[in-house]
Amino acid sequence: MTREFRDLAEEYAGRIYTFARYSLRHREDAEDVTQEVLIRLWKHRDSIDPSSTSTWVMRVARNLVIDVSRRRQARTAVFAEGADMVEMAAPSGQAADTAADRSELRSRLEAALMELDEPYRSIVVMREIQGLAYEEIARALNMPLGTIKVYLHRARRRLRESMRTEMNDV
């Protein structure tokens, strides 16, 4: 393995794993997706433009996540420690005060996120958890930048509405 590839693998492995883990809910599946993306990166390392490696990696990761989800016939996602999303979902802009409240809020947010269809779910995960720029998401999903922004806005609105409904039902 070349030193250059080892650096690439170290740079992207965490991002790939996190995306797959949030999307698939299973550690083993996330590890498999991470390994497969890195194998494909190795195979195609000479043909990938270095300036678009991040985009290429996230596109391959997303496609593999979709493949795994289809094979399992389950459309799930996990949202663990997304502080921005937890604060966004909190009623009246107030963050939860206790660990129990945060845990309950996180569980409700996970349920709301699982209700989102694709590509809304992937866009939220890539933006809010991965911290990718809008342009990177657009390239990774092969969608226009404006569409990414509109879909993210709609996804956030749906999450807020779902959280409000959930909070009112309690």
Task: Describe what this molecule looks like in 3D.
This protein has 170 residues and is mainly α. The chain has 2 domains: 70 residues, Orthogonal Bundle (Rna Polymerase Sigma Factor, Chain: A), CATH 1.10.1740.10; 87 residues, Arc Repressor Mutant, subunit A (Orthogonal Bundle), CATH 1.10.10. The chain has 8 helices and no strands. Helix 5 crosses helix 8. The protein starts with a helix and ends with a helix. About 8% of the residues have low confidence.
Helix fraction bin: over 70%
Mean pLDDT: 81
Q: What is the count of β-strands?
A: 0
The CATH homologous superfamily of the largest domain corresponds to Winged helix-like DNA-binding domain superfamily/Winged helix DNA-binding domain
So, CATH architecture of the largest domain?
Orthogonal Bundle
SSE-based structural type: mainly alpha
Number of helices: 8
Topology as a string of helices (H) and strands (E): HHHHHHHH
Features:
mainly alpha; Rna Polymerase Sigma Factor, Chain: A; Arc Repressor Mutant, subunit A
Outline the fold blueprint.
Layout: H1 3-24, H2 27-44, H3 53-72, H4 83-89, H5 99-115, H6 120-129, H7 134-141, H8 145-169
Brief summary of the model shown:
It contains eight helices and no strands. It has 170 residues and is an all-alpha fold.
